[in-house]
Amino acid sequence: MKRLAAPLLIGLIGAAILVALGVWQMQRLAWKEAILNDIESTIAGDPVPLPASYDPGTDRYQPVELEGSIGEGELHVLVSQKQKGAGYRIIAPFTTDDGRTILIDRGFVPNEAKDATRRIGETAIRANLHAPEERSGFTPENEVDRNIWFARDVGAMADALGAEPILAIVREEMPPAPGIDPLPVSSEGIPNDHLQYAITWFSLAAVWLGMTVIWVRRRSFAQEVRT
């Protein structure tokens, strides 16, 4: 039995660690799902006027209804859409009826429509405030001279268009803008891989236990042969 103690101990401790990691991922899954539910509830909430003092932390995803005018000049953010291919998000200045100018993300246009003329002027919009965090160490620098942006850098875009550093993602323009497909904000792009991680850890625990059983049987068989 002493020869079997070591593999049994290693097997049980290793399996316990792997199961604990799986349980931790299940706890993370519940935590992430609660966050996603809160985000979806906020997105679908009742719209309010533009906050007088904008806080990216507390006002993120807040629905708003705005009336005013879409101004001249727009910025193009390179993106790709499933079944549509490459294209651009259209970021434009929007001046509210009370004189505040913010940024609006009007939606997607295909590559060939990058420099097309789009409707501007008096518009009412339904949108959600957002503070996207899209830049990483792998994101190229924006090619401002060609008006090609690789991330929605709200501060830099606000400086370029003379607006407050506030971005509203359009759900609906009234009247609609021909040729632009709105890309409303949602929780779909927020990663939630904890279930897959949990399944991986639990599977590894099962494999570990299986290997432990094989190891113990071989040692037991070897011991019987010697005796």
How would you describe the overall organization of this protein?
Helix 1 runs antiparallel to helix 3. The protein is elongated and about 90 Å long. It folds into two domains: 2-39 and 202-226; 62-174, OB fold (Dihydrolipoamide Acetyltransferase, E2P) (Beta Barrel), CATH 2.40.50. It has three helices and six strands, in the order H-E-E-E-E-E-H-E-H. The protein has a five-stranded mixed barrel with strand order 1-3-4-6-5. The protein is an alpha+beta fold.
List keywords for this structure.
single chain; 227 residues; alpha+beta; OB fold (Dihydrolipoamide Acetyltransferase, E2P); 2 domains; 5-stranded mixed β-barrel; 3 helices; 37% helix; elongated
The poorly predicted ranges are none
**Order of neighbouring strands in the sheet with most strands:** 1-3-4-6-5
CATH architecture of the largest domain: Beta Barrel
Remind me, CATH topology of the largest domain?
OB fold (Dihydrolipoamide Acetyltransferase, E2P)
Query: Could you give a short account of the major beta sheet?
Result: 5 strands, mixed, barrel
**How many β strands by DSSP?**
6
Strand content: 15-25%
Mean pLDDT: 89
**In percent, how helical is the residue content?**
25-40%
Please count the helical segments. Answer: 3
Offer a concise description of the structure.
The chain is an alpha+beta fold and 227 residues long.
